[in-house]
Design goal:
By secondary structure, this protein is mostly beta strands. The protein has one helix and six strands. It has a six-stranded antiparallel β-sheet with strand order 4-3-2-1-5-6, with no helix packed on it. It is globular and about 30 Å long.
């Protein structure tokens, strides 16, 4: 189960997301569902189509299945998803 403590070690695909801040001011406020993740970006399906947002210098608000909202610094998500979810995080 995804929680605040282990969000960085879980798959993000399918989660609802809102871009709180980004290096490109036009990306702020973009919201939708995460449909793909690469080492440096998240691909978000919005009502206007698909948008690719860089992880670095961005803050994302993720909504978990139980409705809990978590703000995550994109720099903590940087790296390939396959590698990130297998890393042991410091507590």
């Amino acid at each position: 189960m995804i929680s605040v403590r282990n969000i960085l070690r879980h798959e993000l695909l399918g989660l609802e997301v809102l871009v709180i801040t980004a290096s490109n001011p036009l990306h702020g406020g973009i919201g939708g569902r995460i449909i793909d993740e690469t080492k440096h970006t998240l691909l978000i399906r919005t009502s206007d189509g698909k948008r690719r947002i860089p992880k670095m210098r961005s803050v994302f608000r993720l909504t978990l299945d139980n409705g809990l909202k978590i703000d995550v610094d994109g720099s903590a998500l940087t790296g390939s998803p396959e590698r990130r979810i297998t890393l042991h995080m410091k507590k």
